[in-house]
Write a structure and sequence with these properties.
Strand content: under 5%
Oligomer: single chain
Number of strands: 0
CATH class: Mainly Alpha
Order of helices and strands: HHHHHHH
Structural class: mainly alpha
Helix content: over 70%
Number of domains: 1
Length: 182
């Protein structure tokens, strides 16, 4: 793949990622935007590899942080959903035992979400009252729901990656007038 094409594709994915993260500014959609932005980054992992994908993740994180009034979706992207496709790819290649991969994914996710909570409350000053809608167990319920969301995102990335490689990859490359092997 030519460097100029990689740069252009990286810019397109970065722009769409920022737009998706900014959708998290819509009330009750704080998880949706960062989740879809992370899933979009899986395309970059397939086409350009982990290093380029991490640059896209960094650029999207910085731009979203500057442009977003609501820091919660940005932090969700920065703390987990943005680099998750890269983590998933690395674990898939390096760790053979599926159980170990899942333990690592859950550990990283839970550490990231707890860190995100503390940043939101103690750095960005989000009132604790906003997070106590269901009662004293709200944080545990949100964390359990987040773990379920992480499993769904992992499944979506897996299935969409297979679908992309089998059905869409050749068509997209042909539409761009590129040869994948260049």
């Amino acid at each position: 793949m030519k460097k100029s094409f990689k740069t252009a594709l990286g810019g397109i994915i970065t722009a769409f990622s920022v737009i998706l993260i900014l959708l998290g500014n819509i009330p009750m959609s704080e998880y949706i935007g960062p989740t879809f932005a992370g899933i979009l980054l899986a395309w970059a992992v397939i086409e350009m590899g982990a290093v380029h994908s991490l640059w896209i993740y960094a650029a999207a994180s910085i731009l979203a942080f500057i442009l977003s009034a609501n820091k919660e979706p940005v932090l969700l992207y920065v703390m987990f959903f943005g680099y998750f496709p890269v983590l998933k790819d690395v674990l898939q290649r390096k760790v053979k035992l599926r159980v170990v991969r899942w333990v690592i994914k859950f550990a990283v996710f839970n550490a990231a979400m707890i860190g995100c909570y503390f940043l939101l409350v103690y750095v960005f000053g989000m009132p604790l009252e906003e997070m106590e809608g269901i009662g004293k167990y709200t944080m545990y319920i949100l964390l359990a729901g987040g773990n379920l969301l992480m499993v769904v995102v992992d499944f979506c990335i897996e299935k969409l990656s297979v679908l992309y490689r089998m059905k869409w990859q050749k068509r997209i490359w042909k539409a761009f007038g590129q040869n994948k092997n260049e």
